[in-house]
């Protein structure tokens, strides 16, 4: 009998261990197993006013201008399964174009900076404020993954000097490289994590569109520019952090224009939207507009500006929503301004 009980106990323990081992495997597969997928879903719709300021600007704003974002997150198996049940989530294969996560993040930060620059230019032009543009920084976005680069650069480095030369314009760097040959080793300095760091660059052979060979570094640079108004009372400062990409250009422009000119362009409405901004005021297409519309509606937006090239995609999502928010198609900032100027004050 004792022998039978011991055998039963061993069988019971074996079953328990098998169950526990199986449970661990299931948890690992569902939660920890890496996948090549990401999930896109509605992010935030945030008031822009706290992020920008115009020196001696008109701060009257009874409504609000909002930028909208898309949340991108790595997908484990559990999240992949859950996304099937959520109509606002989109499962997609991750594609960084050969870049690392850090390089992708650096590029998105640069795109946001470039978006701010274009918004400032467009707002100054429409507010008829004279300004000048100068280069502020040369930032390394990433080494071209298709080239055998030979340098110490890291994504996010700010180039301070190369071969003892500092640069006020990007063309000055190009002109320096024209005086060198393939295989030359140059010493340089970068600002990395707020610390000046020495780097070495060996020039490699690059080919232009005509097939001609020239010396170069094989680096994708970001040129950050500074827009300086000739009237110092109209200086603009951005305080935005932790948001990347170029898609807030239109909404930045509207907020800046509102502060640069007298009166309240918002007229008490909650105004959201998206779209890149060119210096000439053209509103360009963006990604993820169905998610941005949902984010705006969650924050009770009255109006959503959609780029003309994204409008059909936006309307398809909009038609599935129960919302009082108005969807407005725009191709230029002038069209958005004309629409807002024609609105009555909210509540009247």
From TrEMBL:
It catalyses: Hydrolysis of proteins in presence of ATP. Its EC number is 3.4.21.53. It holds the Pfam family PDZ_2. The active site is at 247, 292. Residues 242-343 form the Lon proteolytic domain. One of its GO terms (biological process) is protein catabolic process. One of its GO terms (molecular function) is ATP binding. The chain crosses the membrane at residues 16-40. PROSITE patterns: LON_PROTEOLYTIC. Keywords: Hydrolase, Membrane, Protease, Serine protease, Transmembrane, Transmembrane helix. SUPFAM superfamilies: PDZ domain-like (SSF50156), Ribosomal protein S5 domain 2-like (SSF54211). It is an enzyme of class 3 (hydrolase). PANTHER family: ATP DEPENDENT LON PROTEASE FAMILY MEMBER. Belongs to the peptidase S16 family. This is endopeptidase La. It comes from Paenibacillus selenitireducens.
């Amino acid at each position: 009998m004792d022998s039978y009980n011991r055998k039963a106990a061993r069988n019971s323990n074996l079953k328990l261990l098998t169950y526990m081992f199986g449970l661990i495997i299931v948890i690992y597969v569902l939660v920890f197993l890496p996948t090549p997928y990401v999930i896109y879903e509605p992010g935030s719709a945030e008031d822009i006013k706290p992020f920008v300021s115009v020196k001696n600007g008109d701060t009257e704003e009874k409504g609000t201008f909002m930028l909208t974002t898309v949340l991108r997150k790595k997908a484990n198996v559990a999240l992949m399964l859950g996304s099937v049940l959520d109509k606002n989530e989109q499962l997609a294969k991750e594609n960084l174009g050969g870049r690392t996560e850090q390089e992708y993040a650096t590029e998105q930060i640069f795109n946001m900076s470039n978006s701010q620059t274009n918004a400032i230019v467009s707002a100054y032009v429409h507010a008829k404020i004279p300004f000048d543009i100068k280069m502020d920084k040369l930032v390394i976005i990433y080494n071209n993954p298709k080239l055998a680069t030979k340098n110490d650069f890291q994504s996010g480095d700010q180039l301070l000097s190369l071969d003892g030369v500092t640069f006020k314009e990007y063309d000055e760097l190009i002109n320096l490289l024209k005086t060198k040959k393939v295989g030359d080793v140059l010493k340089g300095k970068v600002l990395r994590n707020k610390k000046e760091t020495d780097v070495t660059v060996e020039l490699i052979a690059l080919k232009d569109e005509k097939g001609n060979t020239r010396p170069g570094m094989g680096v994708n640079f970001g040129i950050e520019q500074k827009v300086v108004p000739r009237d110092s009372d109209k200086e603009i400062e951005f305080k935005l952090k932790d948001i990347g990409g170029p898609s807030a250009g239109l909404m930045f422009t509207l907020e800046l224009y509102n502060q640069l000119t007298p009166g309240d362009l918002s007229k008490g409405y909650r105004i959201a939207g998206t779209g890149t901004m060119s210096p000439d005021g053209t509103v360009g297409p963006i990604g993820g507009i169905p998610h941005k519309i949902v984010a705006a509606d969650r924050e009770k937006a009255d109006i959503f500006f959609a780029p003309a090239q994204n409008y059909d995609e936006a309307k398809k999502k909009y038609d599935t929503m129960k919302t009082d928010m108005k969807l407005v198609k725009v191709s230029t900032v002038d069209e958005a301004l004309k629409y807002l100027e024609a609105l009555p004050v909210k509540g009247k």
